[in-house]
Write a structure and sequence with these properties.
heterodimer, A: mainly alpha, globular, B: mainly alpha
Chain lengths: 323, 233
């Protein structure tokens, strides 16, 4: 069986290689701290395998994670000088390779699609699935990236096999610590739930709605999901909190709503919040950094005028179909 | 009730523009301490959460190959290609991409798009190329607008497409949470079906805004021209 952990190890090795490159990059004024950041991250990806399998203590990884946060807060990782081709060289190469340049980029979705749609269902001789359950997409993405890289290397023949790592580092240094913020947010949701934040919010929102008004209760759940998502940056973290506070006790138990509709639309109301918040770094700040935008809130500004009417749609859909 | 202070930590930390990684970590520690977790349990929660959500960061495995083809002129080639297609405007191109992104995400093919895999190497250069053919060299305002909308088409297509697919994280989180917490037996397929109405609304609203983007760009370009003329005088 192909296991998803292999691909986490691949990510870990990539981060460690980057740490080694950064350590040798004399143009980077913060090279030691930056190498420490990528290095600890890489080792955490490997160590995580043993944590998930309960073969190693989680607290050690917890300390590493807090260490990463402290490094990020102290201004690491920093960027070195960009060493890539000049615009003039790129025009020359584009003329030489032409549309073949698209080939590696197209390999990624095609291979990922084959994994997601077909290989995900293939069984081995012993009746087990070929790909680890629930991880076909991630495994597909990993394999697709490797194949695309092979195609790219054969096609473009860069001088050294270190070139792709080098170019990957260039892109990763643009993203910086924001690359792992989503993982931190998932962790925050877990801690919030264990500490009883959801129940506390329920006690507060009890006073907000007029008793017996269905539309007010629906709006409270949907807007609450959006607002909490804006604050926490992640609808996944907001869902347990708002569902424990409003969705279950009020909408399902008191008003007898259909659970599937209430919860499905509630989550989508949270997604409207994700469109509006810089806390959802992977969806809003990472694209801005990748596109080298001057205004890091540019994507959010393009999304808010869609998010607001869509939240209204969600309230109406839940009101008319769940009750 | 005091546990709500943890939410206040997030809000205040963010308002003060303190590094998000530090804010999130501090909020987690505060919630754990007020909620009565021991320091070791808090550290364990950090470790378990981080290890369990590594899948979110896997997108970085595409960066080496994307960086490689960029080095050899991918963006220039994309611009050249789109420059030849006269009917494709920036707005129409992004609207078509929104439709493709949402449709494929609804089939579970979420990794087809994405800011690193698709927007930076393909979609943005094409959208910018279409605008360049129309307006010449793009002033910064137009560049920023196009970048923002290119990113938005990808994100909105993903969000309101992926929930129509059964085996996606958010659906599994819903069924997992409510089944264990409230003893329900929800079918993932029912949750997925009820994501369709919102998905259609999202496509209509954002698709319309993308088609209207061309007019907005016309206006911005005209304003910029007038401003440069004014400055020349």
């Amino acid at each position: 069986m192909i296991k998803v952990e292999w691909f986490y190890w691949l990510c870990g090795i990539f981060f460690v290689l980057i740490a080694l490159q950064v350590l040798n990059d004399r143009s980077n004024p913060k090279r030691v701290g930056s190498a420490a950041f990528w290095g600890i991250l890489g080792l955490s990806f490997g160590y995580g395998t043993f944590v998930v399998n309960k073969q190693a203590p989680s607290w050690l990884l917890g300390i590493a994670v807090i260490g990463l946060a402290v490094l990020a807060g102290s201004g690491f990782p920093g960027k070195g000088e960009e060493r890539t081709t000049t615009p003039a060289e790129r025009v020359h190469f584009a003329d030489r390779f032409g549309n073949k340049l698209f080939l590696p980029a197209l390999v990624i979705p095609v291979v990922a699609a084959i994994f997601g749609a077909w290989l995900a269902k293939v069984k081995l001789g012993d009746g087990k699935l070929l790909l680890q359950t629930g991880s076909a997409t991630i495994i597909g993405l990993g394999v697709a990236s490797i194949l695309a890289l092979i195609v790219g290397m054969v096609l473009l023949r860069p001088k050294s096999p270190a070139v792709p790592v080098h170019e990957g580092r260039r892109l990763l240094e643009h993203i910086g610590w924001a690359a792992i913020l989503p993982q931190m947010l998932a962790t925050l949701g877990l801690l919030f739930n264990a500490s009883g934040v959801g129940k506390a919010v329920g006690r507060v929102t009890d006073h907000l709605v007029p008793k017996g008004s269905l539309i007010a209760a629906v709006a409270l759940y949907c807007i609450g999901m959006a607002v909490f998502t804006i604050i926490m940056g992640n609808a996944f973290a907001a869902f347990p909190v708002m569902t424990a506070a409003v969705g279950w006790p009020l909408l399902v138990q008191q008003f007898d709503g259909t659970p599937a509709v209430v919860f499905a639309v509630g989550m989508l109301a949270g997604f409207c919040g994700t469109l509006c918040t810089p806390m959802a770094a992977n969806f809003n700040l990472v694209p801005a950094a990748l596109l080298e935008m001057k205004d890091q809130y540019g994507p959010i500004k393009a999304q808010i005028p869609t998010a607001v009417p869509l939240l209204g749609c969600n309230i109406l859909i839940m009101y008319f179909f769940a009750f | 009730m005091w546990v709500l202070l943890a939410i206040a930590v997030v809000v205040v930390g963010f308002a003060l523009r303190i590094n998000s990684m530090l804010v999130v970590t501090a909020a987690g520690i505060v919630a754990g301490l007020i909620g009565g977790l021991s320091p070791v349990k808090i550290l364990n929660a950090f470790g378990d959460g981080f290890a369990g959500s590594r899948s979110v960061t896997v997108f970085i495995v595409t960066l080496p190959v994307i960086g490689l083809i960029e080095r050899y002129g991918l963006q220039h080639q994309a611009r050249k290609l789109i420059g030849k297609l006269k009917v494709v405007t920036t707005g129409r191109l992004l609207a078509i991409y929104l439709l493709i992104r949402q449709g494929t995400a609804a089939l579970g093919l979420t990794s087809i798009g994405g800011p690193a895999q698709a927007v930076r190497p393909l979609i943005h250069p094409m959208a910018a190329g279409a605008a360049e053919r129309r307006y010449g060299k793009l002033p910064e305002k137009l560049q920023e607008k196009i970048k923002g909308f290119a990113a938005s088409a990808d994100t909105i297509g993903l969000f309101f497409g992926e929930d129509i697919f059964v085996a996606i994280g958010s659906i599994l989180l819903i069924t997992g949470f409510v089944d264990t917490t409230y003893g329900l037996h929800l079918e993932a397929i029912d949750i997925a079906l009820w994501a369709i109405p919102t998905g259609i609304c999202a496509l209509l609203i954002h698709g319309t805004r993308l088609l209207l983007l061309d007019r907005q760009l016309d206006k911005l370009a005209a304003e910029d021209k007038a401003a440069t003329k004014e400055a020349a005088r």
